[in-house]
Amino acid sequence: MFEIAADYVRDNTPFEVIGGYMSPVNSEYKKEGLVSADARIKMCILATTGHDWLSVDDWEALNPSYVPTARVLDHFDEELKKLGGVEAEYGERKPVRVALLAGADLISTFAKPGLWDKKDLEHILGKYGCFILERMGVNIDESLENLDRWISNIWFINQPIMNDVSSTKIRLFLKKDLSIRYLIPTSVINFIYENELYNVKSPINGHERSPSGPKKTIMNAQVDNVHGDGSPIDSSK
Predict the structure, then answer these.
(1) What distance in Å separates the CA atoms of residue 44 and residue 56, rounded to the nearest whole number?
(2) Angle at which helices 37-48 and 186-194 pack, to 10 degrees?
(3) What is the pLDDT of residue 231?
(4) Which residues, in sequence order, are CB contacts of 50 under 8 Å at separation 6+?
(5) How many CA atoms lie within 13 A of 160 on its CB side?
(6) pTM for the structure as a whole
């Protein structure tokens, strides 16, 4: 989703993407299916290894308590301000703007009364803004209900090739013993099976189990695009 968002920003906004961060949610969020923060941080690191502008930030995940999305964005903003912005041409330094990248399934929860703190919504959408990636089965018009006051700070990204992969669906596939090959980086798949995360059984001789029983060799194909929304309801973040 980061790559799709970067293309959108380049072609449709006056902004320039200088970096993206995956921020695994804190374990105190208590979402069903979450594995340890350490394991999720490691998977994000594996997924972004070799990427020239994506990084992993573990501040949210390792915090002693749950951190709301608004505070996570503040953390990034504060840390980037300490650097004095980014260096542009001729040595000039420019300020950095932080924004939230999320799937439409997350944004649809913004419009649900009582689910989000109103002050947090004002902070997230008013101060930072949000780039929303299209998701199958999510009505964007309904998702944006009651968000009109921030519409100028919300950008909706249509997917040129629909990709409905999400962390929730990866966990569902694993629960059903379905193959996740080519859906996420091979290094992450290997880590999941080697550590028997999500109750999977460790494969034998580098093989991933198929739904029907026979084993399929895990190929060493590299995946360039990394999925993740870096937000407390995810994902990645």
Answers:
(1) 6
(2) 150
(3) 38
(4) 222
(5) 5
(6) 0.81
